[in-house]
Automatic annotation (TrEMBL):
Transmembrane segments: none annotated. Residues 9-130 form the Calcium/calmodulin-dependent protein kinase II association-domain domain. One of its GO terms (molecular function) is calcium/calmodulin-dependent protein kinase activity. InterPro entries: Ca/CaM-dep_prot_kinase-assoc (IPR013543), NTF2-like_dom_sf (IPR032710), Steroid_delta5-4_isomerase (IPR011944). Gene3D superfamilies: 3.10.450.50. SUPFAM superfamilies: NTF2-like. It comes from Sphingorhabdus profundilacus. This is SgcJ/EcaC family oxidoreductase. It holds the Pfam family CaMKII_AD.
Length: 134
């Protein structure tokens, strides 16, 4: 097997692509960023999403909040045709009815895998911070 070369800048670009897909509010565009057998463990869902239909279903609802993600901290792990970005982020959500904005502080794990020549999200886990900032 030939291993694709990937850099931190490439992985940063994948997050930008993901954030830009959120901005479209199109769940199909977001879902296309995931591998065929991806797993999504989302911040605001108790249900693991184990296929494209379930991942899309999550984003149909979630994108109504006009999410915007910003990375607070990152570490990277690179492997053969896989890469991970792990750390903390803030997702800003907007209430459609009132326009009120809420920042959700969370931890994340993006695991990427090369599929059909394109880097895609193989696993995404995001969970709210368990402790209040002091």
């Amino acid at each position: 097997m030939k291993c694709a070369v990937v850099s931190q800048a490439n992985i940063d670009g994948l997050f930008t692509e993901f954030n830009n897909a959120w901005a479209t509010k199109n769940p199909d565009l977001v879902t296309k960023l995931f591998t065929k057998d991806a797993v999504l463990l989302a911040t605001v869902s108790n249900k693991p999403r184990l296929n494209h239909a379930e991942i899309r279903d999550y984003f149909v609802s979630f994108l109504k909040g006009s999410p915007v993600g910003s990375i607070n901290s990152s570490s990277y792990k690179m492997g053969c045709n896989t890469a991970a970005r792990l750390g903390t982020w803030t997702v800003q959500l907007t209430d459609a009815a009132t326009g009120a904005k809420t920042d959700v502080k969370a931890r994340y794990s993006f695991i990427y895998r090369l599929e059909d020549g394109k880097w895609k999200i193989d696993h995404l886990h995001s969970s709210m911070m368990p402790e209040k900032a002091g």
